[in-house]
Each structure stands twice: as structure tokens, then as C-alpha cells.
Write a structure and sequence with these properties.
The chain is 75% helix and 0% strand. With 239 residues, the protein is mainly alpha-helical. The chain is globular, with a radius of gyration of 18 Å. 34% of the residues are buried.
Length: 239
């Protein structure tokens, strides 16, 4: 990113991020309404429906990403630079994989110590309902969770928000912690224990974003986290 590329102000960054997030969700709700033939106000709760979750992800992420791209068009640089779409080095990828795998192991160990099942009911429900609809819906769910979701969430939290809020070295840890907190609380499908684990992963992702300057690296690590979760879900349902 060139030095004269000016970010949005801190409050403008938050406001525009919210606009992008809710713009994507509004488009997804409209798509669900059309798909199920129900008005938005009369639609049932689809939170555990793998087909509905897949539709939401495939619709909301492109809309949200397009809005963020438009908002990231700032003088002195490109939208890609603003969002941190920089290729990481091989060493950064290897370190990121090692750190992410280590945190996954620690998280699973903590869950075991607290007597918690590694896979949540939400994960089981969406996997089971997508699988019951056939191979293609299940494949699309995998693609949505492992590929599309990391692109959308990292573009917002470790891309747009991170760039808009990080102004000086003293901002580093406040921004890492704040973006991790906001990212964790949007996972309302989980309970406090899992949300706390999401927060810890968010801290790692934020640190990797700061250390490498690359949101592409955090997208890759996010995909690794989600892929591990999907594998655990598969194993839980087929053992």
C-alpha cells in the first residue's frame, strides 16, 4: 500500500463496514424469500438448514465483497492494497499453518478438558440437512464454508476494518483485539464457549494480518480452520 493512501475515518470505517455487512445479509434474505416462496416476514427459522445457510453465504459474500471493494477505492492506492490482498511469502504461510494447527489442537484439548463435544449442534444440523439433500448440496456447503466464508469475513474484519482502524504502531493490539471481538460476536449460532474460541482464533488471524500485511494469508488460515471443523463434523456423523 502506498503511503499516501488515506483510510476512511474510524467511525466511517465502522459505519461503512456495517453497511456492507447488512447489505450482503439483506440480499441473502431476499434470495431466501425467493427460493422458499415466502415473504421475508413469514419465513421460518432456517438457522440449522444447510441449504439455507449455503444460499445465504453464496449470496451475501459477493454483495458484501463488492460493496467493500467500492468503499476501498481511496486516493493514492488500489482497493486491493486497501483490503490487504497481498500474496504472503512461503515462510509466512508455513508459520501461519503451524500456528493455526497448534491453536486448533489447544482448542480441542480445552474442549475435551471441559467435557465439551468438539462439534456443535449447528455444525451437525447444517451438515446433516445438506447431506440429506444429495451430494451436490453437500459439496456446495463445503465450498461455502471452507472457501467463500473466509473470503467474506476476512475482507471485512482483517481487510476493511483493520486498515481503517490501524493508524500507528500503538493501534496494533487494540485493533487486533477489537476486530477479533467483533468477528466472534457475529457468530451468534454458537454459545459463549465456542464464541470465546472464535475470539482466540481472531486474535491469531489479526496478528498474522499485522505481521504479514496480508489478508490473503488470513483467508487461507481461516479456510484451514473451517476445513478442520467440517472434517470433524463428517467424522462425528460417520463414526
Amino acid at each position: 500500500m502506498t503511503s499516501d493512501q488515506q483510510p476512511w475515518g474510524r467511525w466511517a470505517t465502522l459505519g461503512l463496514g456495517i453497511v456492507a455487512l447488512f447489505g450482503g445479509q439483506a440480499a441473502a434474505l431476499a434470495a431466501l424469500s425467493w427460493w422458499y416462496g415466502e415473504s421475508i416476514g413469514r419465513m421460518p427459522d432456517f438457522s440449522g438448514d444447510g441449504i439455507a445457510v449455503t444460499i445465504v453465504i453464496f449470496v451475501s459474500v459477493p454483495v458484501q465483497s463488492a460493496l467493500l471493494w467500492l468503499m476501498a477505492q481511496r486516493p493514492g492506492g488500489s482497493a486491493g492494497d486497501y483490503l490487504g490482498l497481498k500474496l504472503p511469502s512461503r515462510g509466512e504461510v508455513l508459520f501461519g499453518v503451524g500456528a493455526t494447527v497448534a491453536l486448533i489442537i489447544v482448542g480441542n484439548a480445552v474442549s475435551w478438558l471441559f467435557g465439551r463435544f468438539l462439534v456443535t449442534d449447528f455444525q451437525l444440523d447444517i451438515y446433516r440437512t445438506a447431506g440429506s439433500a444429495g451430494f451436490l448440496p453437500l459439496l456446495l456447503l463445503w465450498l461455502a464454508v471452507v472457501v467463500v466464508t473466509p473470503i467474506g469475513e476476512e475482507s471485512l474484519f482483517r481487510g476493511f476494518l483493520f486498515r481503517g482502524w490501524l493508524r500507528s504502531p500503538r493501534d496494533t493490539w487494540p485493533v487486533i483485539l477489537l476486530t477479533a471481538f467483533l468477528w466472534s460476536i457475529v457468530h451468534i449460532q454458537y454459545d459463549w464457549f465456542v464464541i470465546a474460541q472464535v475470539f482466540c482464533f481472531g486474535v491469531l488471524l489479526g496478528w498474522l494480518r499485522w505481521a504479514s500485511g496480508s489478508a490473503l494469508l488470513t483467508m487461507l488460515m481461516h479456510a484451514l480452520i473451517n476445513c478442520e471443523g467440517m472434517i470433524e463434523t463428517f467424522v462425528s456423523l460417520h463414526r
